[in-house]
């Protein structure tokens, strides 16, 4: 019998991501930064397009090492703009670099990005009880607050919708449908 999944997980890469990562609480700063970068690049595009290029992004952006990315210069930006393996959007590339710098400042101030970002949910996953994909919101009070604070700290491409997608990816919110086999697994 086939497993029941959230309606958006249809293609092999989406199924793999849904079944193994989406909604699982992340407390590793490098992984949190990866999701922040990828969600920024997703703006205006499908998550499927990002997943298809994820390995290329990892290679192009030094495995999402924020310290390395924070030092990228114009030469590196030009090489990224020539890389067909990623989304070649100059604003998004520059945002990833400025976000790396802002990320490092947050780590310095709070001891870790993890401590900072999870403060928006009081350190716990928000567990929702959606029955249909139509019920799943694009934003929340928490993503609004996160977006506002990230922007104040100099982050770019962190609107409330992007922040909510980030929260879903990093497990700050469990938006698996209650009928999805992962709903209970992620709770545990």
Can you put this structure into words, describing what you see?
This protein has 188 residues and is mainly α. The protein has one domain (12-187): Endonuclease III, domain 1 (Orthogonal Bundle). Helices cover 56% and strands 2% of the residues. It has helices at residues 12-20, 29-42, 47-60, 66-70, 74-81, 90-110, 113-118, 141-152, 160-169, 181-187; strands spanning 126-127, 173-174. The protein has a two-stranded parallel ribbon. The longest helix is centred in the middle third of the chain and has 21 residues, at 90-110. The radius of gyration is 16 Å and the shape is globular. The chain starts with 11 loop residues before the first helix and ends with a helix. The mean pLDDT is 96.
Walk me through the topology.
Layout: H1 12-20, H2 29-42, H3 47-60, H4 66-70, H5 74-81, H6 90-110, H7 113-118, E1 126-127, H8 141-152, H9 160-169, E2 173-174, H10 181-187
Parallel strand pairs: 1-2
Helix pairs in contact: 2-3, 2-6, 2-9, 8-9
